[in-house]
Amino acid sequence: MFSKLNPYETRYRLRMDEQIVGYAREIGRTRYYSKDQFWWNGAIIKHNRVDECIGIKDLDNRPLYELDIVEYALEGARDRMGCILWGQKEDVFIIKDLNDPSLEIPFNVNDMTLFAAEDLRFRAYLFSQPDLMRELGVRDD
Hints:
By secondary structure, the protein is mainly beta. The chain has one domain. 5% of the residues lie in helices and 47% in strands. The protein has one helix at residues 130-136, and strands at 9-16, 19-27, 30-34, 49-57, 63-65, 68-72, 80-87, 92-97, 104-106, 108-109, 112-113, 120-125. The longest helix has 7 residues, at 130-136. The model has no long low-confidence stretch (mean pLDDT 90).
């Protein structure tokens, strides 16, 4: 099953360095904040890092964000691990395979989403693993 978030809103995960402090969502020109993604209001949450939601949920109905590490499937079983990044060349979000970092798979090609919720499962935060970030050449700024 394909599980996509509301296309009229953009969501963000808010952090103070490596600690998640809340979430934000923009609908039109209005921004709402939440500490738990359940109750939303206009009270700004102090933060110094922002991770954008990619607009897709995983197998467990969890919204996925850039710098998430996910278990994913290319063909059949979810037997691969990758991290979600913004692909500068492709101008779309990609999964960078952790076993073969040269493998970068876009989430969308020609407005078609390549992954269904069953193909993805959140596993960890890349931003909490600085050695892996260095190894992959990923910066958190």
